[in-house]
TrEMBL record:
GO MF annotations, alphabetized: methyltransferase activity
Protein name in UniProt: Putative tRNA (cytidine(34)-2'-O)-methyltransferase
Record has Transferase as a keyword: yes
UniProt xrefs under PANTHER family: TRNA (CYTIDINE(34)-2'-O)-METHYLTRANSFERASE (PTHR42971:SF1)
Residues that hold S-adenosyl-L-methionine according to the record: G101, V122, S131
InterPro entries in alphabetical order: Alpha/beta_knot_MTases, SpoU_MeTrfase, TrmL, tRNA_m1G_MTases_N
Keywords: Cytoplasm, Methyltransferase, S-adenosyl-L-methionine, Transferase, tRNA processing
Native species: Clostridium tanneri
Similarity comment: family membership: Belongs to the class IV-like SAM-binding methyltransferase superfamily. RNA methyltransferase TrmH family. TrmL subfamily.
Length: 155
């Protein structure tokens, strides 16, 4: 496993499907934290993931606390527009976790404030209107992390 991608209470099925596809193609594990804003059986999720779902390494958690308890000795980064650090300014290692928030509201303040030095952001000119699409943000961060690891197990 190269990287762990965590979606905190995702709301849009197409985003989750696209992210699942990225996870399969990068040998990353996908972690979903409930409640989900959709059913994983929905057509939009399956269509976005196409035929990759059978290869996806997926775990679903009832809560963020459940995930953190299971991986209490792991390194976590938190993607948020409220961060001071850019996503490329941290040193990723195999097995690290990157947590992404809900499409409508991002990560809760309690999660962001749990370790502000591990909060990262993708630079944008204007964040007062909207931010990047979640699946685009996951791809940007994931590929930077994998680049730093010299693209482990990838051709």
């Amino acid at each position: 496993m190269s990287l762990n991608i965590v979606l905190f209470q995702p709301e849009i099925p197409q985003n989750t499907g696209n992210i699942a596809r990225t996870c399969v193609l990068t040998n990353s594990k996908l972690h979903l934290i409930k409640p989900l804003g959709f059913s994983l059986d929905e057509k939009q999720v399956r269509r976005a993931g196409l035929d990759y779902w059978q290869y996806l390494d997926l775990t679903i958690y009832e809560s963020y606390e459940e995930l953190r308890e299971k991986y209490k000795n792991s390194t976590f980064y938190f993607s948020t527009t409220h961060a001071k650090n850019f996503y490329h300014q941290v040193e990723y290692k195999e097995g690290d976790f990157v947590v992404f928030g809900r499409e409508s509201s991002g990560l809760p303040e309690v999660i962001r404030e749990s370790d502000p030095e591990r909060c990262i952001k993708v630079p944008m000119i204007n964040t007062t209107t909207r931010s990047l699409n979640l699946s685009n943000t996951v791809s940007i961060v994931a590929y930077e992390a994998l680049r730093q690891m010299d693209f482990p197990n990838m051709k």
